[in-house]
Design brief:
The radius of gyration is 18 Å and the shape is globular. It has 186 residues and is mainly α. α1 packs parallel to α3, α4 runs parallel beside α6 (165-178) and α5 (144-158) crosses α6. The two termini are 32 Å apart. 46% of the residues lie in helices and 2% in strands. Strands 1-2 form a two-stranded antiparallel sheet. This is DUF1595 domain-containing protein.
Length: 186
């Protein structure tokens, strides 16, 4: 180990990072993606993810599972529950934006071709959509590199052979941004 090396991790200026938990995560997703809370995430189309994954997301459940206190550490299934909740919310927003482009919130003016590909990944609309996505999740503007990385993601997604690669890219970008540490912790 190099003398004076601290692992390369800078100390947080905020210094008080906390996992959002089920209620805050769902409320933040609803607000950021302009969705009704009930449509953020539903398992089997019936059960709120907040209830289904509540304990895994750091909540309590004294009545059904006798969990009276929040766990001191996150569980092994917490990342899966976060991704499930975020992906469901992203899918709801994307479906609204793609199916009603005139009322689009995040992916405004992003044009898809007849075969479901992005018409032009270098268009200003795509860059604006990535900026909007980051602002909504991270409450700040993206760096040029962050925005470019999200735009370049479209080429990788299109190479996977997805049936609708433009929508798959929207899903991947939204999931990447909203499931990041910057979005999941406050």
């Amino acid at each position: 180990m190099t003398p004076g090396w601290d692992g390369g991790v800078a100390k947080s200026q905020k210094g008080n990072l906390r996992f959002k938990g089920p209620e805050r995560l769902s409320l933040d997703l609803a607000q950021a993606l302009e969705l009704p809370l009930a449509s953020v995430c539903n398992e089997l189309g019936q059960y709120s993810c907040q209830n289904v994954h509540g304990v895994a997301l750091g909540g309590v459940d004294p009545y059904q599972h006798s969990v009276y206190e929040t766990a001191t550490v996150t569980g092994a299934t917490t990342p899966i529950a976060v991704e499930r909740t975020v992906l469901s919310a992203c899918n709801a927003r994307i479906a609204l934006d793609v199916n009603t482009p005139a009322a689009a919130v995040v992916f405004k003016d992003v044009v898809l071709t007849a075969d479901g590909r992005l018409a032009d990944a270098a268009s200003p609309a795509v860059a604006a959509a990535m900026t909007s996505l980051v602002r909504r999740a991270w409450l700040r503007d993206p760096t040029q590199d962050e925005r470019d990385t999200l735009v370049r993601l479209s080429a990788g997604v299109q190479a996977t052979g997805a049936a609708t690669p433009g929508v798959a890219w929207m899903q991947a970008a939204c999931l990447a941004v909203f499931s990041s540490a910057e979005a999941v912790f406050y």
